[in-house]
């Protein structure tokens, strides 16, 4: 059966036919031959081919198919461009990804660079790959969902291969006031679990939590100091702990 893979945009190109993978055919036994007895010596003896090839030899031969035939049996296209399309569409199902993430995946699958570039460029043209949209959505989700500061968001987007200019534009939607307000909310949620500890330990635990989320030392100290003061803690000398 010819397998068709849909291009983004509606066109389709056929994939390759699955390769056949049959084992050797055992010839019929000649006159006087005893059933179930293997021939010794002669052409093909011990090779699994020709007279005397038993079930074990045939099974071994069938199981040693080539990688291309194995892929065909699994329904994967054999043409590199078709393979690249199939891989990218599968990875993009339900999860946006950057161009670099998809390029890395194609490289791991040993897709030729020319075929990978053709597919990635096509996917960008039709909007299936959009690093700017990805970065904007990532900042929105990770800041409001996890409370990450701009510094942490920049670090994460870099690891995903987003261009520096695109990153700067995405994190630019967060201003200093919004970032500090999020830091205060994080401290307020964590504050109760630190009650009963001495002041210095509370300070380190709360400031450390903010630091792991990418907040700078100055902002962390200011936000934690204010939260402790509102609880009646004496914050004199806290600066010396940083």
From TrEMBL:
Belongs to the RecX family. One of its GO terms (cellular component) is cytoplasm. Residues 41-53 have a biased composition (Gly residues). Residues 54-70 have a biased composition (Low complexity). PANTHER family: REGULATORY PROTEIN RECX FAMILY PROTEIN (PTHR33602). Signal peptide: none annotated. It comes from Streptomyces griseus subsp. griseus (strain JCM 4626 / CBS 651.72 / NBRC 13350 / KCC S-0626 / ISP 5235). Residues 179-222 form the RecX third three-helical domain. One of its GO terms (biological process) is regulation of DNA repair. It is found in: Cytoplasm. It comes from the Bacteria. Residues 84-122 form the RecX first three-helical domain. InterPro entries: RecX_HTH_1st, RecX_HTH_2nd, RecX_HTH_3rd, Regulatory_RecX, WH-like_DNA-bd_sf. NCBIfam families: PRK00117.5-1 (NF001061). This is Regulatory protein RecX. Keywords: Cytoplasm. Residues 1-88 are annotated as: Disordered. Residues 130-170 form the RecX second three-helical domain. Residues 71-82 have a biased composition (Basic and acidic residues). Modulates RecA activity. Its main location: cytoplasm.
